[in-house]
Amino acid sequence: MSRVGKTPIPIPDNIKIKYKDRVITVESGKGTLERSVHPAVDLKIEDGMIKVNVVKDDRNSQALRGLTRSLVANMVTGVTKGFERVLEIHGIGYRAILNGNRIEFNIGYSHPVNFDLPEGVSATIDKRNVIKLSGIDKELLGHTAASIRRLRPPERYKGKGIKYAEEHIQRKAGKTGVKVV
Questions:
Q1: So what's the pLDDT on residue 140?
Q2: Using CA atoms, how far apart are residues 163 and 167, in angstroms rounded to an integer?
Q3: Domain span holding position 76
């Protein structure tokens, strides 16, 4: 059994946390995040710590305890430090251009592909092929990065496409050119 749910979450001084009607709200100067809490778990805020408790002690509630603890910890980290995700574009002629809240991709199709960034996610583009996404909501940021990657996933032979910066693409050998008699 995981012990993630048992560790308390420290609350930094510069954020405000409200927990009312099974909804937790975390806010600071960077923004506000809000999430509803499952009925199988309950939160206690005391002594500068957030503790996640289970309502009844069964396997499903323990799993939800660890999940809830991770989600709330990500909310606290998001409003204090924020999150960042880096994507790289590989391929001849492949590039991205930022126009306000929209990214225009030239990724090998006959037309440019436009991607509108959701509210709460900002982007910067370095050298026309490195995209840095940042935001306070980890879930929204990851979903946005996955949606951008899905526009042109990296292929295994030449590595062309959009990939995460830390991702390693396992390359495959092409045809060997063996002549069959």
A1: 97
A2: 7
A3: 4-80
pLDDT at 1: 57
Domains of the chain: total: 2
Within 13 Å and on the Cβ side, how many CA atoms surround 13? 0
Judgement on whether residues 55 and 11 belong to the same structural domain of the protein: yes
Q: What gap in Å lies between CA 170 and CA 4, rounded to an integer?
A: 33
**pLDDT on residue 57:** 87
Q: What's 97's domain CATH number?
A: 3.90.930.12
Are the beta carbons of 94 and 160 closer than 8 angstroms? yes
Q: Find all residues with CB under 8 Å of 101, minimum gap 6, and list them.
A: 116, 117
**Do 135 and 160 reside in the same domain of the chain?**
yes
Instruction: Give me Rg for the CA atoms of the chain.
Output: 22
Phi/psi at 110 (5° precision): -75, -5
User: Block means of pLDDT (10 residues each) for the chain, length 181 residues?
Assistant: 85 94 94 95 94 92 94 96 96 94 95 96 94 96 97 93 94 77 65
Helix (H, G, I), strand (E, B) or coil at 83: strand
User: Same domain, yes or no, for 134 and 92?
Assistant: yes
